[in-house]
Amino acid sequence: MSRIDGRAGDQLRPIGIIPGINKFAEGSCLIRCGNTHVLCCASVEDRTPPHVPEGEGWVTAEYSMLPRANRERSKRDIAKLKLSPRSAEIQRLVGRSLRACVDMKKLGERSITVDCDVLQGDGGTRTASVTGGFVALSLALYKLVQDGTIPEMPLIDCVSAVSAGIVNDQLLLDLCYEEDSAAQVDLNCVMTGSGKLVELQGTGEGRAFTIEEQRALVDLCAKGIREIQAIQKAALGG
Amino acid sequence: MSRIDGRAGDQLRPIGIIPGINKFAEGSCLIRCGNTHVLCCASVEDRTPPHVPEGEGWVTAEYSMLPRANRERSKRDIAKLKLSPRSAEIQRLVGRSLRACVDMKKLGERSITVDCDVLQGDGGTRTASVTGGFVALSLALYKLVQDGTIPEMPLIDCVSAVSAGIVNDQLLLDLCYEEDSAAQVDLNCVMTGSGKLVELQGTGEGRAFTIEEQRALVDLCAKGIREIQAIQKAALGG
Amino acid sequence: MSRIDGRAGDQLRPIGIIPGINKFAEGSCLIRCGNTHVLCCASVEDRTPPHVPEGEGWVTAEYSMLPRANRERSKRDIAKLKLSPRSAEIQRLVGRSLRACVDMKKLGERSITVDCDVLQGDGGTRTASVTGGFVALSLALYKLVQDGTIPEMPLIDCVSAVSAGIVNDQLLLDLCYEEDSAAQVDLNCVMTGSGKLVELQGTGEGRAFTIEEQRALVDLCAKGIREIQAIQKAALGG
Amino acid sequence: MSRIDGRAGDQLRPIGIIPGINKFAEGSCLIRCGNTHVLCCASVEDRTPPHVPEGEGWVTAEYSMLPRANRERSKRDIAKLKLSPRSAEIQRLVGRSLRACVDMKKLGERSITVDCDVLQGDGGTRTASVTGGFVALSLALYKLVQDGTIPEMPLIDCVSAVSAGIVNDQLLLDLCYEEDSAAQVDLNCVMTGSGKLVELQGTGEGRAFTIEEQRALVDLCAKGIREIQAIQKAALGG
Amino acid sequence: MSRIDGRAGDQLRPIGIIPGINKFAEGSCLIRCGNTHVLCCASVEDRTPPHVPEGEGWVTAEYSMLPRANRERSKRDIAKLKLSPRSAEIQRLVGRSLRACVDMKKLGERSITVDCDVLQGDGGTRTASVTGGFVALSLALYKLVQDGTIPEMPLIDCVSAVSAGIVNDQLLLDLCYEEDSAAQVDLNCVMTGSGKLVELQGTGEGRAFTIEEQRALVDLCAKGIREIQAIQKAALGG
Amino acid sequence: MSRIDGRAGDQLRPIGIIPGINKFAEGSCLIRCGNTHVLCCASVEDRTPPHVPEGEGWVTAEYSMLPRANRERSKRDIAKLKLSPRSAEIQRLVGRSLRACVDMKKLGERSITVDCDVLQGDGGTRTASVTGGFVALSLALYKLVQDGTIPEMPLIDCVSAVSAGIVNDQLLLDLCYEEDSAAQVDLNCVMTGSGKLVELQGTGEGRAFTIEEQRALVDLCAKGIREIQAIQKAALGG
Lengths: 238, 238, 238, 238, 238, 238
Hints:
The structure is a homohexamer. Chain A is an alpha+beta fold. Chain A is built from 6 helices and 9 strands. In chain A, the strands form 2 sheets. In chain A, strands 1-2-3-5-4 form a 5-stranded mixed beta sheet. In chain A, helix 2 crosses helix 4 (125-146). Chain A starts with 14 loop residues before the first strand and ends with a helix. At the A-B interface, helix 2, strand 8, strand 9 and helix 6 of A face helix 2, strand 8, strand 9 and helix 6 of B.
């Protein structure tokens, strides 16, 4: 049975990454996964939050959707005077994922904030934010090395993310909005270049799922992650 | 190698559940998992939020830690004028988990809010909230049936939750605070009575983890969940 | 005419105080006055707010009700983005009452926050907070002396609190919720061990009251305070 | 021993009330008690809050200090994003005091908000707010009667307020700022025209006080209240 | 055609300025332009915001309307938890206008906040705030010079403000509320003593306006400004 | 003397408008004026705010800068819990400008929100928001007509905006960031297709300016506006 957009079950949506899209940010990209478009900007500041040990750096992320990123306009957070709980959850995930690939001692006493602003959302915004956020972060780190601010690249590994899910009892890779809305199970993986897991979040929204289904979904994600890594690498100049 | 509190690697902390602890709530319990104590109160209201289809019910959760639930006092959310992002993330998890076991049509046009307030936290507060929250919710649903408000129990299944993690490269079930602080990998499972997954969240805080490690952690959780289900059942009167 | 719960007009509800209920707080207790249950935790911090003179300490209180402490669930402060004005008023009263019994120079440059969280409320939560808050505060101060942090106990006096009111033109001690709801006049006293007043708040909610009635209500409170002091003393180990 | 401003111990500060100071409010006055100046405006609206029984009215108060009402400028509430807890406490007191003199059934389904804005504060702002608020409220009620909106005056009684305190162990009426800052005991009374109590708030800020001292302070307030009532009456046209 | 209050088209409303109205502020006045009454208080503090260069001072303004300054009562900002966008816009205008007349190096490292609180509003509150704010600011600066805190007056120039508008296709100076509500075009000018522009804001609320109309409105304002300057000068003692 | 980017004094920066950039919004465009990039999305909703007369429509605007739109990262509004006062001021200007060109009766009982989100800011973001906002609004209105929702285009006129300023005593059109930072005078014009003014805002940030200078700046803007109108027209398909 073919998918709404004609893809095979284990096929990613077309991904495009435009590096350096923002003139001011130390690192930036616009990532497009199908109709999901996220602007990722990495900003370097010469101080760290209080909880960070002396001599070490910090990486954090912020995530937000523009009001008309969705099918219906949603109010801005500031109009409701609270950060959307969904955004809070996602930016914590993106932050943890990005920190997993940085050696904080090599980064030194500075912090990098990666802003992920969804210009248009069609499913998979959190995984696109991790994937694009890694590109923006890498570019900012390159710049710090090229400037001579830090002696060597503090990247330990690369990270990428993708979702898989169960829709009509079929396992599908990289759900678009319509699939996501109808999904019985939705699972997101963040993985390193060597295929290890950094983050794993699975939810049975329509029904519970067996341990075997869970394993198959992770395997499907692992397949997608390998393809995404090649695209990230190309965007970073190989 | 034995654990800080002398447990075997696959051993739960002692769990106690006192049902009906609150005189006013339609359902309530105090759950104690080792030194983690969570007060769970289920409140029934005769209206539903706007997004709920007509004729159906809704179940949601709120989670909060008292200021001195921890080793150090933390400020109240209201003093910072924002819901802690960690609390936001946890209460979304608890809410999804509890909704997974309720037939919303049988519940009818009413909503149940399950408040999970951590009186003392020593690791595993989110999983204790799911486990205790299910007991409070069940008691509130029993009451609705006994009152004649609804004709039959709207419970589809039971849910329970537990964590497992990797500490010093050892797989351990049900991490206490010291273990959690030192964990390389932390994974939480919410499962049904028949051993299916409802929620799965794994994080490599210290290092990435292999797919094999992930599988072993889920298996470890499944073992713990079976024991927790027996304790929930007993608290609900068998 | 007997009261709703069978007490005599000048009789307190049964009071129980469990000291040391919280594993982490420097001082804590659970106080139960009839069906009113308040968790009191005293937390010591090694700094003082800006307005405190150098070399002196500070004692403050925070008060909050859990959402289902009442007959009906109430929204959390954070959901409304404002501290309940009633809570603001009560925590100011509790803070002033507790400061009245501490020698701030002997306490030295540290502050103690006494959190009073109402787990279940059935009338008299503010007076229970003062009475239980004093026990938690005393335990924290004992600990500072035992640790050798401060050379001698900074307690000047003890404080306790109770309410009295006029219901159906009868003077009653220690109003429970039903009595409080029907009260024409409600008066709260905070008193020291030697029977002096620290705080006095009287309100004619249903009708104004004469100066003679006011005097009789204070006398009734003084009687109750003497009994409460014996219970506090016992909880503190005599 | 004479007072800082030369008054006798039981002497009020000069009080002036300018009725009708605001062109738009249904009732208004500027009250000056020494150097304490409060603008009181009563606004009528044709709806009541949800908790008010059908067919009845409601009276409430809001209290605020302008930023430079004090010796030092203080930040506006909105800059701190929270209502000052002291203002919250005071406006609850003013609201209860004013409600005590209105027959809500005669008022009918409308609400009156009495805004008390302190233009300059030199001690006794809460009691000036009650005294001036009563004048503004009365004028608004007269207007409703004159307009034919309500058939008869819904005033049950009048209310006035004043403070007394113990400074250097002397009992003084109507404390000004310097006296208030040095007071060992501070007590506020709200009383009706017939000398009954509506509200009573006493605080031992510097030391506890005996029951005899408390009684003497209330007697002192009662003396002041009688004089204030004459001034209110004159402002209302006798 | 005569105006609602009988004025000629190019005639100001009567203006009164009472300097020194507030006992505590370093400079203050009450300005009345017809029925628009604004209390302006200038407060000096011995520190500057972070963005101010070392050795220089800062001048800022805050603007707010009391709840019953208008024909209908409006909620306080704090009740809505946000500064009114209109107030935000106005206080930025007043701040810029006042800064335009101060030599920040002569002022030295201190800041002056000019609070403009509208007690009664009948059109033209923003221009009255600039005009009155200048008087309050000048008085505070005189005081600093007289105290010997600063060696010479840091005033570069004076500033005054007034509105003009098009109502029923007639050009009118200094619109009152009824005229403002019916205006097709509304234009505000802030000018110096030598007739130069500091701020200019024109809005076509009912229709667009030609460049010629715009020029005529500025000329009309210039005429009014000259008269206002004489009144400011008199209030400042000539 | 040539400008920093080589332009003549009366030359606009290159302007590009991509219509229909957002898949979901009823009307949208990305406008680029030099390095200033603003995403404008118009969203239609089938209800109006309470203040709108029955049978009429409403148009409003929201404006925000992404955190890294600037040379330095700025905090999000939600992190500071308040809408930036500058954004509040700008979105009021954009809203008024767009309303000036719509016949609200022809629009009917619906409202259109135009979100202007600055992706990159290099001076002139408010004028780009008006110019781009008009394109997004027009596209949304076309869609309503094409859908048959409304019978005829409710556009009365077109609106465009541009800035001019005085830098080093030279009059320049369309200031970029560096020019804006150094400007002595900054003036923004919003004009209709027939060259009439809708909004005019001029500020002497570095010095006051003469009436003659003001007139010359408006003339300069009028010249720029004519060129911008041609670009808007082309983006809307001629």
